[in-house]
Amino acid sequence: MDTDALKRLAGEEAAALVQDGMVVGLGTGSTAACMVDALIRRVAQGLKIVGIPTSLRTAEQAQAGGIPLTDLGAHPRIDLTIDGADQVERGTLNLIKGMGGALLREKLVAAASERLVIIVDDRKLSENLSLPVPVEVVPFGWQATDLRIQALGGRTVLRGGADGTPYVTDNHNYILDVDFGAMGGSRKPETLDAALREIVGVVETGFFIHRAETVIIAGEGGVTRWQRSA
Ligand SMILES: O=C[C@H](O)[C@H](O)[C@H](O)COP(=O)(O)O
């Protein structure tokens, strides 16, 4: 099975968890897009839900496919959010998210959700989180914020568009991708996350610590589910 087929498998498995009457958080990225496609098909067959998208592009996809949308103002409590991830740590189910730039809205939606279900293909699994973590920063004075982040021991790259200008998030901020190398031991993701969030100018990080309730993993052998222990 190619990666796209695995993403579809995970997306369809997760979409089957959605029930009539739910407020559903709609994630961002190529795997989440497969789940939104599966939900669009179910809505066309009569499923009654409202969705809260985590990015403008997910909003566009859902709206074009006929999923009624709402927001956290009207529905501050979400029944179930289904989203992708860039890396999942075995054992803890801690995540790195935000390669697609949607980390802030994804975290706001996750924080309002009763359940967060993450969908990935098995390439995303890792013993320890090790990818560069996306950090959303305020554009004003981002260079000073960058220096403070580097002082934590991370190598930083300002995310750029194809034309060399900074990538701008849906919230009009920039993203620094921060490479801490493989984490674990004394360099715990939760410690780095807390230190990053204390820096003025940092809006949010792509660390999702103790947030995923379930991870649905698609691999050659089919679908596996991991549950976070309490
Ligand atoms: O900002 C983007 C999100 O966190 C995505 O859920 C994440 O990057 C995974 O995306 P994909 O399913 O395309 O690998």
From TrEMBL:
Belongs to the ribose 5-phosphate isomerase family. One of its GO terms (biological process) is pentose-phosphate shunt, non-oxidative branch. Keywords: Isomerase. It catalyses: aldehydo-D-ribose 5-phosphate = D-ribulose 5-phosphate. Catalyzes the reversible conversion of ribose-5-phosphate to ribulose 5-phosphate. One of its GO terms (molecular function) is ribose-5-phosphate isomerase activity. NCBIfam families: PRK00702.1, rpiA. HAMAP family: Rib_5P_isom_A (MF_00170). Pfam families: Rib_5-P_isom_A. The active site is at 106 (proton acceptor). Pathway: Carbohydrate degradation; pentose phosphate pathway; D-ribose 5-phosphate from D-ribulose 5-phosphate (non-oxidative stage): step 1/1. Substrate binds at residues 28-31, 83-86, 97-100, 124. This is Ribose-5-phosphate isomerase A. The gene is rpiA. Transmembrane segments: none annotated. Its EC number is 5.3.1.6. Homodimer. It comes from the Bacteria.
